Structures are given as structure tokens and as C-alpha cells.
Amino acid sequence: MMVSSPFGGGRAPGGLPRLPTPPTGWPIGSYATYGEAQKAVDFLADSEFAVGDVTIVGVDLMLVERVIGKLSWGRVLGTGAVSGAWFGLFAGLLLGLFVNQGFALQVLTGLVLGVLSGLMFAAIGYSMSRGRRDFSSASQLVAGRYDVLCQPRSAERGRELLAKLALKPPSANP
């Protein structure tokens, strides 16, 4: 993944634009899932096609939030304690490496302080929500369909190859 900069101009290494730009090319295939589009591009690559001319474009984007479960004080505090423990363990290890007094004591101190901090911050955050969001969830950006675009110079050959892929029986597809 490349992050663009407002100060850079021109093109990045590899010929990709520095600023977000709409994709270019002619459609050579359209698929219901990203996996199918990825399989099509993989087939093109296996067929010695110039895949540098190909772009997969998600169309009709949706943000899907899948609810994982109900939040409770126990779950919130448990998650806060574990999160704080990891951070505290890391801080304790760093202290133990650079302080010449009791490595184990430094690690244990960092762990305990991390757990307490994690509990405190989790409790404050959850109490401030006042029950407005009593569930945990995971968000994902998905598309209604995935179009495979190709630069005009090789679009016709790409369409021909993808037509061959579509004619193969499902068990023969890679």
C-alpha cells in the first residue's frame, strides 16, 4: 500500500500516481466477490498476460459492521486489562534492558502498572458511553461487485483469456 503526500508531485516508483486518481482502462471482467476477481487476475498472470495493465476496482462500496457480541463490565475490564498488560510488559522489558536494577522487577512493575492503567482507561471510556453502544463489532469495507479493468492496448486479449476461464468447469478452475 502506498500513502500519498500532498507535497509530492508526479509519479511514485513503479509509475503509480502519487495522489488518489480514478482507475483507467476498459472492463474485461466483472465478479461478485473479490476472490473471484483475484482468481481471474491470477489466471491472467498464469497465462503470461501483462498484469501490470490490470486493476481490480470495487464498485458500489459498503461499510459492513458485523456485531460480535454484547459488551458488559466484565468484558470491557478484561479487554482493558489484557491490552494494558501487553503495553506494560513491553514497557517493563524496555526498562529492564536499560536500567541496571533487577530485570525481573522492572518487567513485573511494568506489567502491573500496565494492567492497572488498562483497567482504568477501559472503565472511564465505557462509563462515558452511558450505554449508547453496548456491543462490540468489526467493520469491513466491501463492494457490490469487483470489475477487472485493463489498459486498452491489451484489453482484447484479456477478455479472450477471461472468457476461456469462464468456460472451464468449476473443478478445473485454479
UniProtKB/TrEMBL annotation:
Domain of life: Bacteria
One Pfam family in the UniProt entry: YflT
Record keywords: Membrane, Transmembrane, Transmembrane helix
Domain General stress protein 17M-like: 28-109
Stretches assigned to coiled coil: none
Transmembrane regions: 76-97, 103-126
Region (Disordered): 1-20
Alphabetized InterPro entries for the sequence: GSP17M-like_dom
This protein's name: Membrane protein
Organism: Amycolatopsis rifamycinica
